[in-house]
Every structure is written in C-alpha cells, then in structure tokens.
Inverse folding.
C-alpha cells in the first residue's frame, strides 16, 4: 500500500483518506478516455461532461488523483502565464496576446466559481501577487514587466510599489520595490484536485486509479492501453500526463521534466505574523532566475518553493528526486534570509515534483479528429489556472462547440521536441548552473559572469 500522504503537505491535509479508487479490471468502451487525473485531465472531463451529460468519460490514473504536480504545487492560482506578455505580443501580436492574458484572468475567477458551485473548500482567496525586487538590479525587470502589460492595455491590474510601500504590506529583507498584480488567488491544491475528482464522478465520469497507461493507439480504434485491458474511445483519447508523458516513448522529447522543490514551516504564531504583515495571503515572488515562489497557507505557515535540483540525464523522474538535500537546505536558508524573524521556526515538510517545460515555453492544446488524439501540456510550473483554461479549450475542440477560446494562441499548436541526449543534459545543466550564478552575482552586487549570455538568450520567454 503506497502512503500517498508523504508526497506533499497538501495531500496529507486534503481531508480525504486517499484510499485508491478501483483499478480498471477489463477493457471498456467509452466516448472519451483520459490519461491522467491531474488538473488537466479532470478539468477536461469536467467541462466535457458539463457540456454533454450523456458522454461516457473515463479517466485512467497510474496512482491516485492529485499524485502529480496538481497535488504538490505552491498553491498559486494566477493569471501569470509561462510566456511573458512582451514575448506573447512579439510572437502572436497585440490582440491575441491581450486575449490570452484576459482569458488567464478569467481562469482564476472560474476556478473560484467552480469551487463555489461544486462545494469544493479549496481555501480559495484572491489576494493578488506581489513580485519583489530584492536588490536594485531587479528594478528594471519590474518596470519592463509593467510596460509590457501597459502595451496590452492591462495596466489597471498592476501597480508598481516603492520599497517602502512593498514593505508596508510584507516585511522581507532587501526589498527595493515591487509589482502588485491583482488577478491571483492562493488555494489548497490538494483540496482542489480531490474535490474536482469528486465533481467529475458526480457528473457521471469514471476514474480508474492505480492503472498505468503503457501506450496508446490512434485512429478509428483509438484506445489507451493498460495491463488490464484497453480503454477504447469513440471520440478521443486525451493525453494529460504533463511531465510524466515523457515516459511514453513517442512523447519522450515533448517536454523537459524540471524539479521544483518546496519547504514548509510550522504554523507561525500571531505575534510573528503581526511583525511580518502579509495579511492578505498575497502570493509572493522574487525576480530570480532560480524562481522563488512563496505562499502564506490558510493555517498560517510559510511555503517557500524554488528550483535548483539538477536535471537528470534521460529526463528521469523518480520519487527520490522529490527531495534534494542541497536544494531543500538552500530553500530553508533563503526563507530565513527573507524573514530573519524565523530564526527559530521549524520546517515540518519538504517535498517536490517535476514541472513540464516545453521547448518554446508555450503551453499547448491540440485535438486531431482523424487521429482521435487530444492533449494539453507544457505549463512550466504555472498550471493551476492555466489547466482550467486548457481544459475548457480541449472540451471545446473535442465537442466542436467552439468559442473565441479555441482561437487563443495556445490552441491547436505544438511545441518543438527537445534535443536528444546527451546534448539535452549538457544544455540544461549549463543553463541551470548559469541561472544560479547570475542570481548569486546579483545578490552580491557583482556583474553577471561573462559566459551567461547564451543561457539568457535561450531562457528568454
Ligand atoms: C513543486 C511544484 C510547485 C508548483 N507550483 C505551482 C504554483 O504555485 N502555481 C501554478 O500555477 N503551478 C504550479 N506548479 C505547476 C502545476 O502544479 C502544474 O502545471 C499542473 O498541476 C499540471 O497539471 P496536469 O494535470 O497537467 O499534470 P499532473 O498534475 O502532473 O498530472 C498528471 C497525472 O497523470 C498521471 N499519469 C502520468 N502518466 C501516466 C500513465 N502513463 N498512466 C496513467 N496515469 C499517468 C500522473 O500520475 C499524474 O497524476 C507547480 C508544480 C510543482 C511540481
């Protein structure tokens, strides 16, 4: 019996027993067969069933609903998109970029609306995001981000803060400025994913857990192939396994699994919170390349997430990689560096998981009616709200009931594959190392190392 509570604080405290649902026992015939009971798979199932309650939908999950990133993330449900507004405009033009950003804002509210409608107590709280410049070298990034939002006509959602104004909200060390974005909620990811699974079942969807999909077949006899039999789909199979899809040989180079790790403190007492501030549970970020994301949980803990665990040759994904001592120690040190008041605060949990990075940083949703294959993937660690949007887009593409969502730049597109190994490993390790060195140089007020311009160019998004 796998103890699924060990994979994250969120699964531990989601309020479910996490007893697996029955596995698939033999072949079945359905309309839609979905691989993966994460947000992508379950949002797609949810909207398909809402649109057509008569559909037969089966979700096939290797472990349990929420085992993947959906049950482990930082709890940001945000209008931030993996590709920056400036780059979106450059790639797709002003109107498509603006439509996409507005759809992302809508997705944040839609997640809150569905929680309300389906009685999912996901501790959804809309407190915004505060991105902090910790050091003067970060200030130009805030200004250029605001300029990019302004050029899309979205400036009313953003506010540039001085160091003093940012510190009034939250006492973090070395803050010289901030950018506040209103369209963001903080939530309990475990409660959301487990509640969503129940909502899908209420609508008539079937979820088979502890059933691994070993492969799939396209075309008139489309099916997911499992050890217990086939899940044959009259309309479509949906591949919604995010970074785990890379374990299927035909999708091995579709994404790059990069580990994001989290350390969580014990609940802080009210005296500490009074000194720290942070009263609206804003999601908090730095501008470091190594990506720092922080959440104040509903029960008064600080969650600090960051990258840094090394990419493993061959896009390996293993339970052992969920913990990386050096990175978890660095995250604990960072937490105390940001909040010196926490010198004696204990850390109670450490976990992590893979995020799926597409070669061009751009999420994709695609349905090929001839192959009867649909997929949505590539969220680069920003999937809590984005999966809601892609789930709706996929449901539209599959059902044929299309709205303007189906014309968003993430619809009906595919990212290029990643390079073959060992080139992939060499490039990614160089970039991880360069990003770390850029951040360290900035922190010490030193110029960037000379060789990092290649990493900056390749990592531009
Ligand atoms: C540590 C961490 C922190 C993050 N923080 C944030 C955040 O704060 N905000 C944000 O927006 N995003 C965040 N993300 C990213 C976000 O969680 C993901 O983008 C999102 O959950 C992806 O959902 P998904 O359903 O596509 O994939 P997953 O949740 O990974 O689900 C895929 C599912 O498919 C199953 N599966 C895979 N292969 C098979 C197979 N062969 N057979 C059967 N089942 C299979 C897996 O077991 C898994 O349950 C974070 C991710 C991580 C790992």
């Amino acid at each position: 019996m796998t103890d699924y509570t060990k994979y994250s604080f969120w699964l531990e405290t989601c309020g479910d027993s996490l007893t697996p649902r029955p596995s698939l026992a033999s072949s079945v015939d359905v309309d839609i067969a979905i691989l993966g009971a994460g947000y992508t798979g379950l949002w797609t199932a949810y909207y398909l069933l809402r649109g057509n309650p008569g559909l037969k939908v089966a979700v096939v999950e290797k472990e349990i609903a929420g085992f993947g990133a959906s049950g482990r993330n930082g709890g940001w449900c945000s209008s931030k998109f993996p590709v920056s507004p400036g780059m979106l405009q450059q790639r797709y033009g002003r109107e498509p970029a603006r439509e996409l950003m507005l759809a992302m804002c809508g997705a944040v509210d839609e997640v809150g609306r569905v929680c309300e409608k389906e009685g999912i107590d996901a501790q959804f709280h809309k407190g915004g995001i505060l991105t902090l410049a910790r050091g003067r070298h970060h200030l130009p990034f805030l200004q250029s981000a605001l300029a990019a939002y302004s050029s899309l006509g979205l400036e009313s959602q953003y506010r540039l803060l001085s160091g003093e104004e940012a510190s009034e909200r939250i006492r973090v060390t070395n803050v010289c400025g901030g950018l506040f974005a209103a369209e963001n909620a903080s939530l309990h990811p475990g409660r959301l994913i487990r509640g969503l699974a129940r909502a899908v079942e209420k609508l008539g969807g079937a979820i088979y857990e502890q059933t691994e999909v070993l492969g799939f077949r396209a075309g008139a006899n489309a099916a997911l192939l499992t050890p217990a039999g086939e899940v044959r789909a009259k309309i479509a199979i949906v591949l919604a396994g995010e970074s785990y899809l890379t374990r299927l040989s035909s999708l091995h180079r579709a994404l790059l699994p990069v580990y994001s790790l989290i350390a969580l403190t014990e609940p802080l007492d009210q005296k500490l919170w009074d000194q720290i501030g942070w009263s609206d549970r804003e999601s908090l970020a730095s501008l470091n390349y190594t990506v720092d994301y922080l959440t104040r949980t509903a029960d008064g803990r600080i969650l600090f997430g960051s990258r840094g665990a090394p990419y493993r040759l061959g896009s390996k994904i293993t339970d052992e990689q969920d913990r990386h001592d050096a990175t978890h120690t660095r995250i604990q040190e960072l937490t105390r560096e940001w909040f010196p008041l926490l010198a004696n605060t204990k850390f109670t949990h450490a976990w992590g998981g893979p995020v799926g990075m597409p070669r061009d940083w751009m999420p994709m949703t695609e349905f090929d009616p001839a192959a009867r294959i649909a997929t949505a993937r590539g969220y680069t660690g920003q999937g809590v709200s984005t999966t809601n949007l892609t789930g709706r887009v996929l449901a539209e593409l599959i059902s044929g009931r299309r709205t303007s969502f189906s014309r968003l730049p993430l619809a009906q597109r595919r990212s290029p594959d990643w390079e073959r190994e060992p080139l992939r490993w060499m490039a990614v390790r160089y970039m991880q190392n360069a990003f770390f060195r850029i951040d360290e140089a900035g922190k010490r007020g030193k110029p960037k190392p000379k060789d990092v311009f290649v990493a900056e160019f390749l990592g531009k998004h």
User: Anything to note?
Assistant: Residues 94-118 form the longest helix (25 residues). The chain has a mean pLDDT of 95. The two ends are 42 Å apart (CA to CA). The longest strand covers residues 229-239.
